[in-house]
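Holo model, adenosine-5'-diphosphate. Inputs:
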Amino acid sequence: MDGLMQDVPLTIDLIARRAMQVGADLEVVSVEPAGVDRRTWTEIGERVLRLCTVLDEIGVAPGGRVGTFAWNGHRHLELYFAVPCSGRVLHAANVRLHRDQVEYAIRHAEDQILFVDASLTGTLAPLRDRLAVRDVVVMDDGAEVDGAFADCPRYEELLAAAEPAEDFARAAENDAASVCFTSGTTGNPQAVVYSHRSIVLHAMGALMVDSHSVRRGDVVLPLTPMFHVNCWGLPYSSALAPAKLVFAGSDTSPEAVARLIESERATVLAGIPTFWVQMADVFAEGGYDLSSVQRILCGGAEAAPSLIARYLERGIDFLHAWGMTEMSPSGTAVWHRSGEDPPAEGAQGVPVPGVELRLVADEGSVLPWDGQSTGELEARGPWIARAYLDPDDDSNATRFHDGWLRTGDVARIAPDGTVTIVDRTKDLVKSGGEWISSLELERALVAHTEVAEAAVIAFPHPRWGERPAAFVVPASGSEPSPEELKEFLQGAVASWWVPDVIEIVAELPRTGVGKHDKRRLRAEHASRLAASVEART
Ligand code: ADP
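Output:
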């Protein structure tokens, strides 16, 4: 027997219509070189309808890829809707990558047209002749356009000349909506292909109180870029709520963000832990009125309990979330509430509703949730990838099996479903045949009051195979010594886990999305460290 409910497709136009209909008095605010741009969700919707016509006129075929090279801003948001709603596929390229990687991503995603912020035309200029796209459209954000793109059509002119499309809906729910590359922290970036259905379900999931908890009346300020995992889906969940949405543009320095929080009265902020470490000092200095902030969404890497505590003390609730590009990104989450005790130790929370997890041992058996057994986390759900874009990618066979995604993260799970990430498989240190968790060492180091950030890598060792080395950024005004930190670790972890080398550094290398770049740390230091051990033995 069939159910007798309406078969309304889960396509992104559903979100666009809602934002337009019930967002008439809610703004989308964008910081641009030209100044601050303000439009209501209804006005954004009208522009999206005209942009659908522009895409028809430019002649991008159904399913064709449309690239962006842009900061967080309202034109980028308009493309987030117009491209998939009109049956095309969006690819937001990472503007912080090296130009060879940008060229690779644009070629690999097969972008036909590229929409570029005027303020980024200079960055893209050296690639002008290597871009495999048919056309480039410049988005006028008030910045000067580099000469290499002077002849390109202009977004605002195209929009002004276009008639609005009759409606947004041209896609089926399982059609591709967007392509996002993983940030490549452990390997080469891989392309994940989101569907309309996965995006709509993820956005609905994000409105749940135990997940991102985005709600009508919020003022959402994402610090996560729109080229990273669809900006964690926040443009879509904010449209669905709908909530006022604030885009910071190119300047995401803590001071600029503080000014924006103050002027727009932001209630919800979202970003990775390294950002919250810097931002905590701005909160502490008290130079800005940041009293509007109610909640912080933090994910992408582990948030230390000491970091979480700094926000709880200020009356701000803190979401610690785990996820990945392949998971749109929501996987697990835990809210730490102000007024409650800060967490004693780092844990990534329980699976968000809609996501199923299991722990699998090396030999393939499924492990119990006993808080002890460690294995690789596998995930399944309607917003989790089942393959990468490139059918010839070998990872398709290794990462996806039996309908589950192998996450590449090692974890343990408590009987109540609380997940604790132990490490990424590629970051584990194999010493004398036993594993050392780089993440647990980092956790132990940042528990020291004089440590702001820590990254631990493996380096080759003649006797043990590998040994850990730690790179530590001191807390502002502190000067911890390596000896003092080693002593501190003696009490916190097994003595054979204590890194052979601890180096104090001013800053850690970052990936294109701002995470600690351990690949680069390994490339720059592992052989030097190995050589110094060889010399001593
Ligand atoms: P990349 O793997 O290239 O960094 P992603 O941005 O998709 O690309 O990152 C996903 C990975 O980030 C996860 O597999 C996990 O290792 C790490 N991660 C994300 N959130 C957390 C968290 N809260 N705690 C620990 N690790 C996290």
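The first strand starts at residue 27 and ends at 32. The radius of gyration is 23 Å.
Archived with the compound record.
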